[in-house]
């Protein structure tokens, strides 16, 4: 098992396949001329499989593929199908733009659940946020996944003045669609111009929901990052990921492997451990994995704590979200 100094067992690995993306969301990848990692510096399919197998031998039971946008990699299908052979629950987070191109691969890999990042239900606003005019395609791909009985979770990063007024519209979507809409508090990363007054907190989200609906809390799992809720008469549900206002670090079981082969023990960790270099040199990476997780801070990468309103984002040292992999 992979265990940290606070006795938290880590059995969930998130693997970023690329820092490239076909969208340009400002809170994730601020600049159009963002320089992507050179191909030879990225983990190759055989290296991803090798590292994944090492983690699985140490007790990992769930792997999620992320990006950037994982489905823009030319060898994404090869990677998905190779990891599908491992004894893990395999899933991925995608912006949904290329799902229709990969539906047969997803079905062949027997993927049961997919997260779709979608911050607005308004086509013009989608274009403004992503700098791409493909809202109809993404929405159609959500329907396509549901038609194939794949569980869909919609990830919505909520920001004041941008999309907080759409919270009840996302809830309305769950009335007849078996979706879980996950409202995510806006988090600080390098280059995303985070300020605390943009955060829509757990309490504020629930207040907005309550203005239109009566909701009931649902029992969550041991390692859930989300707090789950149900509206009576809705076939879908909603959840809130309250990283900023009500962190859930005490039960964290997550590790993150960046596209260039660096292991991060927390989304907000300043340090990271290179696994790809040693792997290419024929070294045993297992001690490095255990050391990295053993050094994990108690909460939030050890970089901030207390009220999010008091956080100075300029003092946080981290990568941009797109180079971490979410």
Explained architecture:
By secondary structure, the protein is an alpha/beta fold. It has a single domain (12-324), classed as Alpha-Beta Barrel (TIM Barrel), CATH 3.20.20. The protein is built from ten helices and twelve strands. The chain has a twelve-stranded mixed beta sheet with strand order 7-8-9-6-5-4-3-2-1-10-11-12. Strand 10 and strand 11 (262-264) form a beta hairpin. Helix 1 packs parallel to helix 2. The radius of gyration is 19 Å and the shape is globular. 42% of the residues are buried. The model has no long low-confidence stretch (mean pLDDT 91).
Using the CA coordinates, give the radius of gyration: 19 Å
Secondary-structure element series: EHEHEHEHHEHEHEEEEEEHHH
Q: How many alpha or pi helices?
A: 10
Enumerate the spans where pLDDT stays under 50 for 5 or more consecutive residues: none
**CATH class type:** Alpha Beta
Could you give me the name of the CATH homologous superfamily? Aldolase class I
Mean pLDDT: 91
Estimate the helix proportion, in percent.
25-40%
User: What would you say the CATH architecture is?
Assistant: Alpha-Beta Barrel
Structural class: alpha/beta
The N- to C-terminal Cα distance equals: 23 Å
Portion in beta strands = 15-25%
Strand order of the largest sheet: 7-8-9-6-5-4-3-2-1-10-11-12
Largest sheet: 12 strands, mixed
CATH topology: TIM Barrel
Count of beta strands = 12
The total number of structural domains is: 1
Q: What overall geometry do the principal axes of the alpha carbons give?
A: globular
